[in-house]
Amino acid sequence: MSKIFVDACLGKETPYTPVWMMRQAGRYLPEYMEVRKKAGDFLSLCHDPKKACEVTIQPIDIVGVDAAILFSDILVVPNEMGMHLEFIKGEGPIFRDPISTQEEVDALLSGEEAANKLTYVYETLKLLKQELPEDKALIGFTGAPWTLATYMIEGKGTKTYNICKKMMYSNPTLLHDILKKVTEVVKYYLEKQIESGADVVQIFDSWAAAIEPGKYDEFSWKYMVEIADYIKAKYPHIPIIMFPKGVSAFINMGGVYGNFDVFGVDWGTPMAMAKEKLGDKYVLQGNMEPCRLYSKEATTMCVEKIQETMQGKRHIFNLGHGILPDVPVENAKHFVNECHRVSKK
Ligand code: CP3
What we know:
Elements: H1 4-9, H2 30-39, H3 42-46, H4 49-63, E1 67-69, H5 76-80, E2 85-88, E3 92-95, H6 102-107, H7 111-115, H8 119-131, E4 137-143, H9 145-154, H10 162-170, H11 172-195, E5 200-205, H12 213-234, E6 240-244, E7 262-264, H13 271-278, E8 283-285, H14 296-310, E9 315-316, H15 329-343
Parallel strand pairs: 1-4, 4-5, 5-6, 6-7, 7-8, 8-9
Antiparallel strand pairs: 2-3
Bound molecules: coproporphyrinogen III.
The site of coproporphyrinogen III has 21 residues, from strand 3.
């Protein structure tokens, strides 16, 4: 059976425009909170394939999205490269041993050796492959090397990125060494996710907009292109979605468009602009402002506007970033239903 979501990623005509939501398996769902409580902390849930599989499927059954995204986190990669990861309630992720020297970079596990440690992710995908309805697609993912490096260098989320940027301008060789090392792990990581059952993979460059436009190619884009080239050479039928948050307005990719199928448009970029600049190169994914989910009317207005712009062609509905924990479940359902309603042919 063909999966509508995969067909849409590849630019094929589909009976309606498929939809999923970033962070769709998460705290706005009471069913998620129940499993999360049983698992203990967040990382224990990521490490438990049965429970991770269960929460991955929840939004398929409850809100009716067309694709399931693996339940995990982008930070399990630096964690398995040897950095100690904790999730602190109210503070988010923390590495207490951030990287600042060449010796620390050299001490990290590299390539396949690090990727091989992420067995719980591959086990979760294998279970999902059995459990997921045949018409629903399974999305694997990774963080982009730049976005992962920001956490590895800063040790936690940051508003200013000053430690990374100090390295970018005063010791770019060290930053590139970190990015290269992460890139190698991510190539194997995505490959193993595909071998374990992922139908599609997404690369999250959530902190793309922290880099000045003239430096984006050098410190992020080129590594994403390298990863995509590697994956496409081996798995040409597997769509790759790239989500560089906050840069679609200025992005010119240095003339290199890269082997991606889908470009995730963030909510700060008008869809019409993205369509004009990128629509013939990529299928576009997005891009409702997630806070519109607080109001059904605001949601409907936005879904209709996006549909009017995209006309159901080369498009996947999504939010322009992750869903927030206090969104009512029925509003999330409303979003999904509206995307299907306006795009049914
Ligand atoms: O449903 C899905 O989208 C799949 C699961 C997923 C999670 N994190 C689960 C999660 C995915 C794809 C991610 C990616 C991720 N993680 C990104 C990139 C996407 C983005 O949001 O920009 C980033 C930057 C992270 C790092 C991260 N993980 C942060 C900053 C936080 C804390 C912030 C918060 O929302 O609490 C996390 C924790 C996290 N990852 C949660 C979930 C469901 C919340 C943990 C909990 O249950 O308490």
